């Protein structure tokens, strides 16, 4: 047991690093070539607020509990600590659209960071958050401010045509499968989610007498692929054991 925990922690850190690199690369390529609707200011504001919230709340908690802050110890621990905030903030900037208003992006990023310290339970000798931070921040923002919307799904391939319309989604599938199978160890969750989502689509088609393709074609979109391979399987808020992953994936699809 003592050997398994450090190994799982190392795999989680490796997954976080690769997710951070992947979402950063997607943001840069998306803004420069793909036709992302978000502005550069969205990204900068989200990152600034996300970093600040994590550093502030960690500092306050470390002070209140009499321990050292997790970001202390040098450059590498500092960067490792900010990886979740980096991923979450870029997800918020990528998925929310608030026209020229920047404060909803800042609001969602602050909520996402704060949710990790509010919605959590005691597991063993530590507290663990149980909500996906970016999903929590985005969902609450959309509920509170109906005029804020998600970014249009077409933005991911807006400037592509022909073979590139197939190559980009295929890249997301291959790279996402590698990340989840080798590092995040959540490929069982991904498969369960996909099977359950497709099954309920076919069930709806049978029950309402609608074309099956109309119910499941959303699964071919890049937005669906990004959620499937890069968001739903957040290592910090999803089960590690296969059975738990299956139940989680099916419940999300339902």
TrEMBL record:
Signal peptide: none annotated. Keywords: Membrane, Transmembrane, Transmembrane helix. The keyword 4Fe-4S does not apply. The chain crosses the membrane at residues 15-34, 40-57, 69-96, 102-119, 131-148, 160-180, 187-207, 213-232. The keyword Transmembrane applies. This is Uncharacterized protein. It comes from Candidatus Thiomargarita nelsonii. The lineage of its organism: Bacteria, Pseudomonadati, Pseudomonadota, Gammaproteobacteria, Thiotrichales.
